[in-house]
């Protein structure tokens, strides 16, 4: 049976018409803790939009959705609707599916120091990144980063797992793949990776527990 993932993308600064009244009291309090009004608005718009979209899948009012949180803070809903939210600067993305957990990460390209790869990537990933050369360093780096983040988010582990304890592919124009996952080797066979291109300076990845089933990602 195929895994169907809906991908929603929106501009956090452009959605001024979103109904913020659906936010919980906890979400309203968290929004107020941001010092900058820009960041307050982005958080509020992101969470409200998340609620409005998920209400379409659950059939429940947006304001009535109750989130459970895993040990590392990953939000979830009771039932068979699985989702993951990511944002980078003004862009937000939400992946939604049924019956299997998933993780999503998006990143804007930005200047990065090469020592970041030395600190966080595995030996295999560093060698693959070096082979790309300086002109494709950013492409490889952010492919690697988003894929690793998506894997950790799918598993609900966050930064409790060392980033160099597993390998992903990162060369452009080659299939994204999880090659090694030392904390749980069986994860390699159950989890699939999918690259996302949004704009010349914005990329992302989805990791989903598809268990070798075909996966279709549809932009909504």
TrEMBL record:
<dbReference type="InterPro" id="IPR050559">
    <property type="entry name" value="P-Pant_transferase_sf"/>
</dbReference>
<protein>
    <submittedName>
        <fullName>4'-phosphopantetheinyl transferase</fullName>
    </submittedName>
</protein>
<dbReference type="GO" id="GO:0019878">
    <property type="term" value="P:lysine biosynthetic process via aminoadipic acid"/>
</dbReference>
<dbReference type="InterPro" id="IPR037143">
    <property type="entry name" value="4-PPantetheinyl_Trfase_dom_sf"/>
</dbReference>
<feature type="domain" description="4'-phosphopantetheinyl transferase">
    <location>
        <begin position="102"/>
        <end position="190"/>
    </location>
</feature>
<keyword id="KW-0808">Transferase</keyword>
<dbReference type="Pfam" id="PF22624">
    <property type="entry name" value="AASDHPPT_N"/>
</dbReference>
<comment type="similarity">
    <text>Belongs to the P-Pant transferase superfamily. Gsp/Sfp/HetI/AcpT family.</text>
</comment>
<dbReference type="GO" id="GO:0008897">
    <property type="term" value="F:holo-[acyl-carrier-protein] synthase activity"/>
</dbReference>
<dbReference type="InterPro" id="IPR055066">
    <property type="entry name" value="AASDHPPT_N"/>
</dbReference>
<dbReference type="GO" id="GO:0000287">
    <property type="term" value="F:magnesium ion binding"/>
</dbReference>
<dbReference type="InterPro" id="IPR008278">
    <property type="entry name" value="4-PPantetheinyl_Trfase_dom"/>
</dbReference>
<dbReference type="GO" id="GO:0005829">
    <property type="term" value="C:cytosol"/>
</dbReference>
<dbReference type="Pfam" id="PF01648">
    <property type="entry name" value="ACPS"/>
</dbReference>
<feature type="domain" description="4'-phosphopantetheinyl transferase N-terminal">
    <location>
        <begin position="20"/>
        <end position="95"/>
    </location>
</feature>
């Amino acid at each position: 049976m195929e895994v169907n993932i809906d991908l929603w993308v929106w501009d956090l600064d452009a959605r001024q018409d979103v109904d913020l009244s659906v936010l919980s009291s906890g979400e309203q309090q968290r929004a107020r803790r941001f010092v900058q009004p820009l960041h307050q608005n982005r958080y509020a718009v992101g969470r409200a939009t998340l609620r409005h979209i998920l209400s379409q899948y659950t059939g429940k009012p947006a304001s009535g959705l109750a989130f459970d949180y895993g040990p590392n803070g990953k939000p979830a809903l009771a039932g068979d609707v699985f989702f993951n939210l990511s944002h980078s600067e003004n862009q937000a993305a939400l992946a939604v599916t049924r019956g299997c957990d998933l993780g999503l990460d998006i990143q804007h390209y930005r200047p990065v120091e090469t020592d970041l790869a030395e600190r966080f990537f595995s030996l295999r990933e560093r060698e693959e990144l070096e082979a790309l050369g300086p002109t494709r360093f950013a492409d490889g780096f952010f492919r690697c980063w988003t894929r690793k983040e998506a894997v950790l988010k799918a598993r609900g582990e966050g930064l409790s797992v060392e980033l160099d304890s597993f390998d992903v592919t990162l060369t452009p124009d080659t299939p994204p793949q999880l090659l090694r996952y030392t904390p749980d080797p069986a994860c390699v066979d159950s989890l699939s990776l999918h690259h996302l291109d949004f704009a010349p300076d914005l990329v992302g990845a989805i990791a989903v527990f598809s268990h070798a089933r075909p996966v279709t990602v549809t932009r909504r």
